[in-house]
Design a protein that fits this description.
The structure holds 2 protein chains of 2 kinds. Chain A is of the alpha/beta class. Chain A has 18 helices and 9 strands. Classes of the chains: A alpha/beta, B alpha+beta.
Chain lengths: 407, 107
């Protein structure tokens, strides 16, 4: 595969091992900024942090501003619950990530690249700092300054504009947009903010070419993605699979199904902000287009599988509480929405409200839609509304009886 | 008719404009009335117009309430006249949304 030779992390790769397998060839070939940009654009690579924006387009905006200095931010905030793909990449293949950062900085002619790393990831700081020293000593970084920075572990700190606030020494609060970071980012200068996994794809693309990259995945979503499976599975871990692989393959072959032979009830295929899928949707393909067609989204590849012993009311409440807790509080509408949804679900769980409360979820979401600086305000809608639709009986039982139908 | 609930928003914006003190003062003023309950509310969503207080089930919405208004609001809660000048702070769609939530028992 593209990111892990065996499709999953094995050894902690050293500088020498990386070079011996073709590492830094792309940097040593010294392609022009335009050539790098062209290759990445042709590859069709899209951001792997969840938003899925075309990478070449993002870089192009920054490169074409004519404003300097320009910056690159490697976003390793990784606060998505259940996600550990960025940590895995930095620990196992630090130089693959770093070569991608250097190539990104060359493509947009950035003078500095900031590695914005989740502050709890001690091993990643160590691995990336060593990698930077080795690459600089070998002359691979050229004039580009490479520095590591601590990312606070609150959810919004991983939002691209919030990462810029932190790098400017301020609290992690998302900025109103536009302007987008590519046009006016760090210190008001054009800034490319890319997720770790996105950047890890760059060196293989530049080294092997866009058409090679496109032999993986689908026409619309070329390449691979790392999927994170949690402890509920027989084989938890981070797995790289071509985009377009069936969910059944990931669930049955790779993940080995749920532990203790439990029966599958629901799937949350892209982290807490996506819609639940019922158990009979295992044939869906793992690419953004197929997931969208199925009424959900792929997010950043965090997969959660729920067994038939799971209370979906409680799970949905936990997701709503997560957003209420993580709303940064600067946008009143987001604060109100996340708090309300959480309170409403709590009342349903306890059986302490009227049945007309069901009709109010959509009203709350419609009233607040788009009234926030960042995407968080739009995040609780898909999981909450899909749960209410798919598992309505469970919600109704809770509301009328105040007890769980599963006992 | 006296109202049953005086709901005082306690979310960040209303708090920063003194809704904590309003809650205390209204509680103190109306504590003798057994049919009345003064309660904190998580958020009415009228953050720019706060502090917000809603009388329920009358469905009267007071915005921009100051300590000087407490006596009049307490009098209204006990069956007196509404305080007309404080009722225009938020748009009707927000009022409708919140009243529906209150009708569904969310308080």
């Amino acid at each position: 595969m593209i990111l892990f030779p065996e499709g999953q992390p094995t050894t902690l790769e050293t500088f020498e091992e990386y070079r011996a397998s073709g590492g830094y060839e792309a940097v040593r070939k010294n392609p022009s900024p335009a050539a790098i940009l062209q290759e990445v654009t042709s590859s069709g690579l899209r951001g792997r942090g969840g938003a899925g924006f075309p990478v070449g387009k993002n870089w192009g905006i920054a490169a074409e501003t004519g404003i300097s200095p320009r910056y690159v931010v490697c976003n390793a905030g990784e606060d998505e619950p259940g996600s550990f793909k960025d940590r895995t990449l930095m620990e196992h293949r630090p130089h693959l990530v770093l070569e991608g950062i250097i190539l990104a900085a060359r493509a947009i002619q950035a003078e500095q690249a900031f590695l914005y790393i989740n502050e709890t990831y001690d091993d990643c700081f160590a691995r990336m700092s060593t990698a930077i020293e080795e690459a600089v000593r070998a002359g691979y970084a050229g004039p580009i300054r490479l520095t590591t920075h601590r990312a606070p572990t609150v959810y919004v700190a991983g939002e691209d504009s919030a990462s810029l606030e932190v790098l400017e020494g301020k609290p992690p609060l998302p900025r109103p947009k536009p302007p987008y970071p590519a046009a006016a980012g760090l210190f008001g200068k054009p800034t490319v903010v890319n997720n770790v996994e996105t950047l890890a794809n760059i060196a293989p693309i530049v080294r092997n070419g866009a058409s090679w990259f496109r032999t993986y995945g689908t026409a619309e979503s070329p390449g691979t993605m790392i999927f994170c499976l949690g402890e509920e599975m027989n084989h938890p871990g981070a797995y790289e699979l071509p985009c377009g692989t069936s969910l059944r393959h990931l669930y049955e072959e790779i993940g080995g199904g749920l532990k203790n032979g439990k029966k599958l009830k629901a799937i949350l295929p892209g982290g807490p902000s996506c819609a639940f899928l019922p158990a009979d949707h295992l044939e869906v393909r793992l690419d953004p287009e197929s997931l969208r067609q199925a009424g959900s989204s792929l997010g950043c590849g965090v997969m959660r599988f729920y067994s038939d012993t799971t209370c979906m009311v409680e799970e949905t409440l936990q997701l709503a509480q997560f957003f209420a807790r993580e709303s940064c509080g600067q946008c009143p509408a987001c604060r109100m929405e996340t708090m309300m949804l959480s309170a409403m679900l709590e009342r349903i769980l306890q059986g302490k409200a009227g049945a007309s409360l069901f009709d109010q979820f959509q009203n709350i979401l419609d009233f607040n839609r788009g009234k926030g600086y960042c995407a968080l305000i739009n995040m609780p809608g898909p999981p909450v509304m899909s749960a209410l639709r798919l598992f309505r009986g469970e919600f109704e039982h809770h509301l009328s009886q105040g007890t769980c139908p599963l006992g | 008719m006296a109202c049953k609930y005086v709901l005082v928003c306690q979310n960040a914006d209303c708090q920063s404009r003194g809704s904590g003190e309003l809650l205390e003062q209204l509680t103190d003023k109306l504590k003798a009335d057994a049919d009345l309950e003064v309660k904190p509310y998580m958020c009415f969503g009228g953050c720019q117009a706060g502090p917000n207080i809603v009388l329920y089930p009358q469905k009267v919405w007071y915005s921009g309430v100051k300590q000087a208004d407490v006596d009049e609001i307490a009098a209204h809660a006990e069956g007196g006249a509404p305080v007309e000048r404080l009722t225009h702070g938020v748009e009707q769609p927000l009022k409708d949304l919140i009243y529906q939530l209150l009708d569904a028992g969310l308080f």
